[in-house]
Design a protein that fits this description.
The chain has 2 domains: about 180 residues, D-Amino Acid Oxidase, subunit A, domain 2 (D-Amino Acid Oxidase, Chain A, domain 2, 2-Layer Sandwich), CATH 3.30.9; about 210 residues, 3-Layer(bba) Sandwich (FAD/NAD(P)-binding domain). About 35% of the residues lie in helices and about 20% in strands. The protein contains 14 helices and 18 strands. Strands 1, 2, 8, 9, 10, 11, 17 and 18 form an 8-stranded mixed beta sheet that branches. Strands 5-6-4-13-14-15-12-16 form an 8-stranded mixed beta sheet, sandwiched between helices. The protein has a two-stranded antiparallel sheet with strand order 3-7. Strand 17 and strand 18 form a beta hairpin. Helix 1 crosses helix 10, helix 2 crosses helix 10 and helix 3 packs parallel to helix 8. The radius of gyration is 22 Å and the shape is globular. Bound molecules: flavin-adenine dinucleotide. Flavin-adenine dinucleotide binds next to helix 3, strand 3, strand 12 and strand 16.
Length: about 475
Amino acid sequence: MNVVEGRAGGGGEWSQRALASASPAVYWLDRPGAPGPFPPLRGRHSFDLAVVGGGFSGLWTALQAVEADPGRRVVVLEAERLARGASGRNGGFLDSSLTHGHDNGVAHWPDEIDTLERLAGENLEGFIDTLERHGIDCALEMTGEVDVATEPWQVAGLREYHAELEGLGARVEFWDRDRVRSEIRSPTYQAGVWRRDRVGILDPARLAWDLARAAHRLGVEFHDHSPVTSIGREGGRVTLRTPEGVITADRAVVAVNAFRGPVRTRAHVIPVYDYVLITEPLPAERMESVGWKGRQGVSDVGNQFHYYRLTADDRILWGGYDAIYPFGGRMTPEMEQREATHRLLAEHFFATFPQLEGVRFTHRWGGPIATTSRFTATWGRSRDGRVVWVGGYTGLGVGATRFGAAVALDLVDGRTTERTELEMVRRRPFPIPPEPLRWAVVQMTSRAMKRADANQGRRGPWLKLLDRFGVGFDS
Ligand SMILES: Cc1cc2nc3c(=O)[nH]c(=O)nc-3n(C[C@H](O)[C@H](O)[C@H](O)COP(=O)(O)OP(=O)(O)OC[C@H]3O[C@@H](n4cnc5c(N)ncnc54)[C@H](O)[C@@H]3O)c2cc1C
């Protein structure tokens, strides 16, 4: 979004003032309503299925397991508190895509894309059905999403995108400059495409908390502060160890996404930190000044992009742009705050909405997106197939984790299904090279994407080479 950087100038000072009192905490999690805390695992216990990780993937695994088989004894072991990973820190965009967008799906699985899109639709229906059946109120608004061009050269691409989606039968509208600005008032907008179907916004922490409550009601046992340090085999069963306890189980699903867990995933899944700001609630006259009556999620279309949305109480959540890979994939609490990125985000926010001068940010945070070289989840087996892991949804895991969990259950239970036969499931993404090459490749790719954004989107030789191999780096 280079046009914004160019215009940020005078707003720099008050954008920093707006940031000054922001609490270094996750807004979604900084509210009452979390279930638990559940006691740490102590002693030795036996279960049918052990789930490692209490984010969306783990929660959907547990819930779907007991819904399918009410007698199954299932335990969820969470290293910290439920939803403290990406699941409680995200933008809350619910997108049906299982493939990190249609284009990415076509690029990787052209023969399978129709099936993947159908499964994506079914997954979304199942998602919404679960909310209704369990009375989960996660403030879901099926508003659709507006993708905006903030540079004149992006408009042609947006027109093509619109035509492509329309050709697929999607309900989409192309908005020219005047129209998009009449809907959402930003001087940076050049055009927009409103995807009306299969995208919404929700409150991710409330989703996770209520998924946990639903699973708990169906008999799933939860343990917070129970990091699984190892998984071994013992007489045809698996043994999971935590600092104070041991579980033996028939099978286990490891759903730690970006985190380093008890099975090796790092050749395929690496952490990338993404950063977010959220404003105070906007009073009615401020809201009037931005319009945004349709309350859609918004995303701009550069390689380095922002995503933003309204919350139920009319705050604006504003995130994205920088995607930071920590050398060695180190995940530390310090990574969750990044002054330079938060400052940049604040500047970009006020360049996009200068009429909001004086609005303050209340929270600032960051979180680990887990990415793969193809930007979609991947699955792996270990311990003779008694353990299955899943992760790597990149920036679109809110909806896709339900599918990821369903596949993990199919695999760990040894069921052959339409899902497990997908090439997307059977084939792993191109491996990510080990350090220090990994670091160098990520840096080169990030720089090349910045250059492309600054150069009318033209992809240089490095990005073209990656395109040829169908690999990349994204958030
Ligand atoms: C800032 C940000 C914005 C995002 N925005 C969006 C968005 O708007 N829309 C969207 O679709 N997606 C978005 N995503 C991605 C989405 O949040 C993730 O894909 C999704 O939450 C992944 O869920 P998960 O359960 O696989 O992983 P996580 O939520 O990260 O859960 C993994 C859990 O495992 C636990 N754990 C780790 N190690 C162990 C261990 N050894 N033992 C036990 N437990 C362990 C962790 O504590 C954590 O709770 C965003 C992500 C981030 C970080």
